[in-house]
Amino acid sequence: KHLSSLSASMYTEIQRERPDGGNILTHPDYIDGNPDLIKPKKLLNPVKASKSHQELHRELLMNHKRGLGVESKPELQRVLEHRRRDLLIKQKKEEEEAKKLQSPFEKELLKRHQRLDQLEKEQEKQEDHAPEFIKVKENLRRTSTVTGDEKAA
């Protein structure tokens, strides 16, 4: 009992020493009423200031007043989502049918076409790395064979 009265008296002494009542936070200067200082203004929340947010909030309040749940959507929105969903399902089915209708011959042709494209790209890369004099020499050979063929005809 003696300890509790001693600690209580220490607490009251600390309180007496602090004129601000023990508050650790400092008071802002604009409360003093100094006219030279600019008083801070509360910042606007850009989300709440947006038109779409305000319209959504208004719609939610109206639905709440009518007793509609958040789960229920407007009829137009439900119909549009249903159409979009049906369109996606139809497109997926068409793609699957197109894949099934490909014969093995068509698949093999597609593979060969892809291989030829790859080979052409590799050749173009190799030609790009070749020195300039080799490219000029190849062009000269082509022109000389063309002129030689024209003379024979």
Quick description:
By secondary structure, the chain is mainly α. It has helices at residues 2-17, 46-49, 51-66, 75-101, 104-129, 132-152.
The SSE order reads: HHHHHH
Low-pLDDT runs of 5+ residues are 1-7
Estimated helix fraction? over 70%
The N- to C-terminal Cα distance equals: 129 Å
Sheet with most strands? none
Radius of gyration: 42 Å
Please indicate the percent range of residues in DSSP E strands (runs of 2 or more): under 5%
- Round the mean pLDDT to the nearest integer and report it: 76
Number of helices: 6
Main location: other
Keywords: Actin-binding, Cell cycle, Cell junction, Cell membrane, Cell projection, Coiled coil, Cytoplasm, Cytoskeleton, Growth regulation, Membrane, Nucleus, Stress response, Synapse
Protein name: Actin-associated protein FAM107A
Region (Disordered): 116-153
Notes on the protein architecture:
The chain is built from six helices and no strands. With 153 residues, it is mainly α. Among the domains are: 30 residues; 38 residues.
